[in-house]
Amino acid sequence: MVGGAMKYLLKKFRREAFKEDGAQLISLIIIVTIGVACFIGFSKSAIDLTRSFNDYYDQARLEDLEIAGVLSPNQVKKIQNLSSIKESNQNYSYQATTNDNKLIIEGTSPRDQINKLTFKSGRYPKKNEIAIDHLYFNKNKLKLGDNIRLTINGIKIKAKISGTIQSPKYLYLTENISEPVPNHQKYGFAIVPKQTFKRIGLPSNLLTVKINNNAEIDQLTKQIHHINQNAYVIKRTDLMSYKMIQSKLTTIKNISIAISGVFMILTIAITLISYSKIVANKKTDLAIFKTLGISKNIILMDLFLPGILTALVGSIIGSIIGTTIFPQIIKSALAILFDFPEIKFTNPTGFIFLSLITIIFVELIALLLNANKLLNETAANAMHPDVSKVNARIFLTKIPAIWQNLSFKTKLLVRNIASGKAKFGLSMIALAFCVTILISSFGLKFALNQIEKSEFIDQRNYDLSANVNSVNLKIQDDSSVTFVDHYSVVPTKIKDLDTHLQIINENSKSIRLISARNKALPFTSLPGVYVSKKLAQKLRLTKGSSVNLKLFLNNEYKQLKTVVQGIYPSYTSQGFYTTYEYLNTKNLTVPIQSQLIKARNINAETKKLNDNPLVKDVISKNKQAENYRNASASVNSILLMIVIIAAMLLFAVIYNISSINISERKRDIATEKVLGLSSFDIDKLIFGENAILVVLSTIIGSIISPLMYNILGNAIASDEVSFPANLEITSFPISIILIFIFLLLTSSFLSRKIKTIDPLSALNGFE
């Protein structure tokens, strides 16, 4: 008997899975796949990338700090003898030009055990040879054995390329912070033997250091400054490459926690609701099994078999996508910024097992919650529909003036919703959550465009930024120039936090700061500083707060006790603003670093500035905006992926819930057919129910989405980045249009399922 029952069970399962309820199971598998893929893909990518970079830093023995500046042999010896220092290398670091390009040239030795190089090709350079950054090498289509001409501090040399290299110190390399996207064709690094610098008479100007595990870096920095007060000490955490990589890794980690968590929770909720309905719809089958004397174990197997299938198939497909496609997308998104070391992929077995167990556990809960009541019900009662459905209470029936004026089909629609109001409510909550994710994802993506407008149109009113070698540069006399303002950035500490202070003229026309209340913040006679909103929230600062800033000027920190005069939103950089005039009243002199220029002819003025020996380099505001777009392309790609995933999940959920509702109401649909309603009329009823469900879910989701937008925005933003506080209004109509397209597609697909329902078999309850 048991063997026959099992054969029938498997035959029945195959028929349901591949014919009757195949689309329903597929939609559930898609939901599970999306949840598992997001969980494994984002979580594993964050872990793999972080571990790969950290392992590479450990293997290459990235410096703990470096001391820039010329040190006497006696000073070097004193520093090396400090108890906190484990080992050090005395090297050279100078900037060189070759044609129109620039290279950081370091003098090293093959015996150096700090910042160990990875040779991509060739060998270590000998006399009159050079090894070049492999990305610069490839971008400029160089070949091993090529000769390049360099100018270092006015000294011209020629060197033959012996190899290509990767350095742990330069995995991210840009010339200055205003150009966040590396230009490997114009800027790179290279190494030569130390003897090269000795031969041309340039002194050693770099000491790289590894410290003991228990060393206090701040205390060590003070000791170094006591030996040489002009020494410029840079900690590992302040290296531009290391800092940028850690910032992006933090962003990926935050995305993995927020997005994978949200999608996995949503998957669990949808699976719980869907599987509960699937079990409830098996009521008639259970009655037949009980009548035939089939054991409870076999019946439970029939109930649990679809769940095992969806969990297994969904987890396997999701694991494959999560371990193959997701890491490549994330790596490709970041490749524009970083020179990746070898990525070490961890074994995904633990993630796969956790996902599978979680989904099966959720389905088991749904089974236990619903099966117990069904198994304890007599076969005769199970063959009849629920009394609660037949006698569903409808509030509108108590208002005759409304109820009596409703059409027959409208009353049917209301009764159908009322008969399953509990499940309707659960479905509405699940759909509302999907809508919230979709709108929030669109909002985050559109926010990148908002940021560009705010930062480069609203806030910056100049055309060109020129880094200058001398304050004697006279640009204002040029007839093609409208105005010129001075600008500087000073590294700043507040408490234990590293930030920066931006300085402009008090009559500056180049920078416009707007408060959160959309009011201009004036610089004229400014008696303090302005602080960015995110930094103010982090430090709990308000207008009128007293702050103690430490400004790094002339290789030492100088105190500035001041007052916050206002707070401004900033999305790409967090810090402070003040004026040269205010700092002068505090006896603080800051050298002018840049000149911000408004020009009538940008191209002509750019050429003039590039030809001027007093100008280091020039960058246009348009180029800065382009660099921002390129730098944000990594986040943009990930957000686009999240939007697509959210849309797919929403479609699968709408289809799944609608499909289950039809399976659940086969008797009702059969009755409606017997009463003379055409398939078109029934389609309209089902569409009406789904439309009401979707509309209510969309309303709830739209109300909640600003909160979810802020939660996700805060989670994925790095320390320097923030998202606009308000959700972009365009996110709503686009999401709503997409939602109703999904509704129409779902109704079109399910109309065939309605047509296949046979009234006689459905009302009899037999197959």
UniProtKB/TrEMBL annotation:
It is a multi-pass membrane protein. Its main location: membrane. Residues 258-377, 641-759 form the ABC3 transporter permease C-terminal domain. It is found in: Cell membrane. Pfam families: FtsX. One of its GO terms (molecular function) is transmembrane transporter activity. Keywords: Cell membrane, Membrane, Transmembrane, Transmembrane helix. InterPro entries: ABC3_permease_C (IPR003838), Macrolide_Exporter_MacB (IPR050250). The chain crosses the membrane at residues 21-42, 255-275, 303-330, 350-369, 424-444, 638-657, 691-712, 732-750. One of its GO terms (cellular component) is plasma membrane. Belongs to the ABC-4 integral membrane protein family. This is Permease. It comes from Xylocopilactobacillus apis.
